[in-house]
Target: SWIM-type domain-containing protein
Amino acid sequence: MDNQPEKITNCFLPQLVDQIFDNLQRKVAITTPTKETRSQFFYDLSVLLGEELVRRTLQLLDVYRFTYYYAKHRQNQCVVELYKGTEYFRLLPKINYCKCDFFQSYVLQLPTGLLYPDIPTSQEFELAGWNEVSRQSYTCQHVLGLRLQQLLKLSDQKVNEKILYPAEFREIYLSIFED
Ligand SMILES: [Zn+2]
Model:
């Protein structure tokens, strides 16, 4: 059992991130945000979440598309799929969870042996291309990308909706948590 005390940053980070989003949300509701407002938003986000994560999230928004799945007659339930070609990640809006390698390794900090049984436990594991500072992260580029898409409506033509029968919806919903 890991007895490390909970870090103060981890307690307050979600609140601070929410605050930054809420601030911009209020401004967006009234008028189109100015360049300065947007710059300040991305700066604040980078300070909290790391420049690399924010930069990669913006790159992701350029190339990924979004499908919002709703269950027929129950449209308060929603699963969002971010996809590019055959690669996809399914998320629940407002839930900080993703099945991607980055989230599992650097957000949840799951042991390498559990995630990748083929890699010997003695071997230090790292995801290719990420800086060392990103290896302790609050969220991944997919979760952040979805929040940004919803907030900034950056890519309206990249978003589509599908209504599914309950059984189909359930299948997609459950796949989020399956191994
Ligand atoms: Zn992810």
